[in-house]
Amino acid sequence: MSGGTLILLALAIPFVAALLIPLFHKQPNVRETVTLLAAVLLAIDIYTLLPMVLAGEVPMLGTLEVMPGLEIAFSVEPLGMIFACVAATLWIVNSIYSIGYMRGNREPRQTSFYVCFAVAISATMGIAFSENLFTIFLFYEILTLSTYPLVTHKGNDAARIGGRIYLTLLLGTSMMLLLPAIIWTGAVAGTLTFVKGGILPETLSPALVGVLLFLFVYGIGKAAVMPIHFWLPAAMVAPTPVSALLHAVAVVKAGVFTVTKVVVYVFGVDYLVNAGTADWMMWVAGFTVIVASLVALRQDNLKKRLAYSTISQLSYVVLAASILTPISLVGAAVHIAAHAVSKITLFFAAGSIYTAAHVTEVSQMNGIGRRMPWTMGAFAIGALSMIGVPPTAGFLSKWFILSGAYSAEAWLAVGVVILSTALNAGYFLPIVYSAFLRKEDENHAKDHGNHGEAPLPIVIALTATAAGTVLLFLFPGQLVTLAKMMMGIGQ
Fold it and tell me: Nearest Cα to 308, choosing from 420, 178, 413?
């Protein structure tokens, strides 16, 4: 099967699933079988593409010209391959988790949930395989619109307010900043096609390069760089599987993926080094990493603590890109995968606790690890990965980022990573300690029921992603190879 056909299937499989799912809204078992089957087929399709990319091929899908100079076109380069593998793999696990969560909590509108989720995955594949800025912008907007109903799923006032903030910030930044940046790029470069090393002309002044970079970084609101971050905690009103989609599978990863892709394939590392106007990005990313960590320390609500942790961890990718060394950008690419598998584990655990115990606050979790050892064991692994402790995937990405920072003598970045690591420990380790080593509150069983673990699909999913967090550390070969191929290292 040709590379172009495989790209088309990657876009079509989840979209066709979205069309089929409503046909079985009165048959939940069949409806969810369709979702799982589509997720498995997508993963098979993506992993069939993987050997081609590892062999140095660039699979492409023929272009569709919308108007002169604007084409919808797809190609698979190493960074996009990483993103697609992450999203396709985690869709399977998230689908298994969703079955247990949505049924266990008797959530309404489950059919529309699965439909919107499938459309979001299709849009994610479009972003991952976009050949040019116009295509990535188109699918970026589809992703925003398809996830809005998921954010507002509960239909209450909090959900509507959260959804309004979500839509306003993401659409506002993309229309007012990202779209002008794309139009400006097309005007000065004469093309919107991604090219390794960049497409901008040498005649563009350093000041204008800095302004254009600013428009891209803040126009890509899904990267949640402060102060364009409020949408993320606001969206925590959504069901936990949606939070997992936002934080791990698609939305925020689409943001940092796009920032990294713009740095490498629109500006080019050497171009930005010569222009000398990217230093501000390191300060902004460092500020976001530290301040979001400080805010996380103060959150008693578990999902809000995880949300601010995500804001902080996302800016590791932006920080790594701002260092402008090949090895730091390898770290940025690796962190996209490492954070995805680790953070989805944490959100799965949060949803498991809510489903089994109806507990939402950190202060209510004393001794809960003895009732829910699988859930809290997985949470501990995800937390250690966020801190960057081996043998977890988070150590791997931080190693590359710090290596790049040391080689560039970017001491600000070094300091940010070290300080934030201590802060990560400060807001994660007390949760693990309380869950396993503190005495359970006397009224816990009375207030929250004499519960054990959550339904089996939830436990299977969070155990799988926790195992994946360790396996990614132990067997990082293909991930690191793709990240190095992106930067031309070892070729």
Answer: 420
**pLDDT tens digits for 50-77?**
999 999 899 988 778 777 778 899 999 9
C-alpha closest to that of 18 among 148, 119, 153 = 119
Residue 245: predicted pLDDT:
66
At CB < 8 A and 24+ separation, what contacts does 475-480 make?
476/334, 476/393, 476/396, 478/50, 478/54, 479/82, 479/334, 479/337, 480/330, 480/334, 480/396
How do beta strands 60-67 and 70-75 pair?
Answer: antiparallel
The token duo for 351 is 């949803």
Percent of the chain with pLDDT over 70: 96
Is the confidence at residue 491, as pLDDT, over 60? Answer: no
Structure tokens at 1: 């099967």
pTM of the predicted protein model = 0.93
Cα–Cα distance between 227 and 284 in angstroms, integer?
Answer: 9
In order of 75, 253, 325, 378, 403, the CA distances from 374 in angstroms are 41, 27, 40, 6, 35
φ, ψ of residue 73 to 5 degrees: the values are: -145, 150
Instruction: Give the tens place of pLDDT for each residue, 91-122.
Output: 999 888 888 777 766 777 778 888 988 999 99
Q: CA-CA distances (angstroms) from residue 30 to 13, 90, 105?
A: 17, 21, 19
Cα(468)–Cα(382) distance, rounded to whole angstroms?
10
List of residues 6+ apart from 10 with CB closer than 8 A: 42, 45, 46, 49, 84, 88, 125, 129
Interval 371-420: pLDDT, tens: 899 999 999 999 999 999 999 999 999 999 999 999 988 899 999 999 99
Q: Which residues pair with 168 in a beta bridge?
A: none
